[in-house]
Design goal:
By secondary structure, the protein is an alpha/beta fold. The protein has a single domain (about 5-395), classed as 3-Layer(aba) Sandwich (Alkaline Phosphatase, subunit A). The protein is about 30% helix and about 15% strand. It has helices at about 10-25, 25-30, 65-70, 85-95, 100, 135-140, 210-225, 250-260, 270-290, 330, 360-365, 380-385, 450-465, and strands spanning about 40-45, 75-80, 145-150, 230-235, 295-305, 330-340, 345-355, 395-400, 410-415, 420-425, 430-435. A hairpin with a 2-residue loop joins β9 and β10. It starts with 9 loop residues before the first helix and ends in a 15-residue tail after the last helix. It comes from Coraliomargarita akajimensis (strain DSM 45221 / IAM 15411 / JCM 23193 / KCTC 12865 / 04OKA010-24). Pfam families: Sulfatase (PF00884).
Length: about 475
């Protein structure tokens, strides 16, 4: 069974580890502790859309910290999530393997999402990240890193009506390489809402009315303080900007006033949540600077999938569809990386990158050599980050054979090769082809104009699905044609 660590015991545990290190230097050497290894801050915002930040073109909301991060590092314009919904994307990041290979292809839930009289049923799927999966946190831990987890996990199956308590606690972060688990559970959103009392079985309540992003930031800052003399990983997978859409009164009032003044803001509360997520990032970055750790810390900022389905901070969405769809609105995400002295400040990359590239990148950053038989489906971005080299990449693939919570999406697969993106819908085997580098809104379907290219890409996608042993959605035996 997993060893559970109460939230209030994290500091005591860290103190004990520090004392042990002082008394028994050989214990430190045994885990390859190297204070020169770079610290890692990995911030993944929940449901943040591509154009939700200032540095990606949305100027009606204040995101000064992510703006500065982009000025100091590299901003990617063609970054894609591992999947169009949260659990498979998070599994792809944690494992470095495609959701299709893992057979973890939908957001983990006790519910079954499907429209009435659907042509296809959901493909078989697993309901937790397998315990035997070797996560990047486990690799970093074994290399001497203190790994802290803060926020949303959603890689475990929750018990029905439990407020996020999971069926198997061995599937939680503190059994997957992390020293702690501060708030990660089986729920897709904050179990009891954004303000304390949280009703989260893995997060102690704070003072009444405490705002969750503020709490997560404070806990992460404390973790950094405790572990500042050794390499650390801050895995800040915060719950913002997931539903329920709620923020502080001050932020709501700020953006309501800004909208009344003519700003292009669709949902003022959501805009406030975006600023709150940016402030959380800022508190971590400020602590890094305070301790003089900036030069030896790599910072990654991204989102788990495309923007949320029901709200937008802007009145003018540019991508087709949203979270839960295989169009770019569900897959395309912001990604910014800063590493002073290694990444040239203010660079913009149009390389095609995905969540699957983060695991091998972190291994290269920490100079960790992996076993030859470990399967990773991505490529290290280190040459791109540090030397702006082009990736030797043939194509990237996506497989979403399940219905999202809204049950309105079509089940299908995607291949992106160079300038072109092909979607293959599983219900009728039809395809759509877009020159995605020029048609980011996926308006002009070129499949009929380019039948040979469409056929080649479709066959290539099908070969990949076979290679990774992807589960396909079965046809509904009770379907009645209308």
């Amino acid at each position: 069974m997993s060893s559970r660590i109460p939230v209030f015991g994290i500091r005591l545990l860290a103190f004990g580890a520090s004392l042990l290190s002082a008394l028994l230097p050989q214990a430190v050497n045994a885990i390859n502790l190297d204070p020169k290894k770079p610290n890692i801050v990995f911030v993944m915002v929940d449901d943040l859309g591509l154009y939700d930040l200032n540095c990606y073109g949305f100027d009606a909301v204040d995101t000064p910290y992510s703006n500065q991060l982009a000025k100091d590092g590299m901003l990617f314009t063609r970054a894609y999530a591992g999947a169009p919904v949260c659990s498979p994307s998070r599994a792809a990041v944690m494992s470095g393997q495609a959701p299709a290979r893992l057979h973890l292809t939908n957001h983990i839930s006790n519910a079954h999402f499907a429209p009435e009289n659907a042509v296809l049923l959901n493909a078989p799927e697993i309901k937790a990240l397998p315990i035997e999966t070797v996560t990047y946190a486990e690799r970093l831990r074994d290399a001497g890193y203190a790994c802290g987890f803060f926020g949303k996990w959603h890689l475990s199956l929750q018990k029905p009506n439990s407020g996020g308590r999971v069926v198997d606690e061995d599937t939680l972060p503190d059994n997957q390489g992390f020293l702690n688990n501060l708030g990660g559970n089986g729920n897709g959103g904050p179990a009891g809402g954004w303000f304390s009392p949280y009703a989260n079985p893995y997060l102690e309540n704070g003072p009444d009315g405490e705002y969750l992003p503020h709490r997560l930031a404070r806990e992460a800052v404390d973790f950094i303080e405790v572990h500042k003399d050794r390499p650390f990983l801050i895995n800040m997978w915060n719950y913002t900007v997931h539903s329920p859409i709620e923020t502080t009164d001050a932020l709501k009032d700020k953006y309501k006033a800004r909208k009344r003044a003519g700003a292009e803001i669709g949902n003022p509360t959501y805009a406030g949540m975006i600023e709150a997520a940016d402030t959380l990032l800022g508190r971590i970055l400020d602590k890094i600077d305070e301790l003089g750790l900036r030069e030896n810390t790599i910072v990654i900022l991204t989102s788990d999938n495309g923007g949320f389905n029901y709200v937008s901070p802007s009145d003018k969405p540019r991508l087709r569809r949203t979270k839960g769809w295989l169009y770019d609105g569900g897959l395309r995400i912001p990604m910014i990386v800063r590493w002073p002295g290694k990444i040239e400040p203010g660079t913009v990359s149009d390389e095609l990158v995905t969540h699957l590239d983060l695991y091998p990148t972190l291994m290269d950053v920490a100079n960790i050599k992996l076993p030859a038989d470990q399967i990773l489906d991505g490529d290290s971005l280190l040459p791109t980050l540090t030397q702006q080299q082009e990736l030797e990449r043939d194509a990237v693939y996506f497989h979403y054979p399940n219905y999202a919570w809204h049950a309105k999406n079509r089940l299908g697969g995607v291949i992106i090769e160079g300038d072109y993106k092909l979607l293959n819908w599983y219900d009728d085997d039809s395809v759509e082809l877009y020159k995605i580098t020029e048609d980011i809104s996926e308006i002009n379907d070129l499949s009929k104009q380019n039948p040979e290219l469409s056929d080649r890409l479709k066959k290539k996608l099908q070969r990949w699905l076979k290679d990774v042993d992807a589960n396909m959605p079965p046809r509904n035996p009770d379907y009645v044609a209308e």
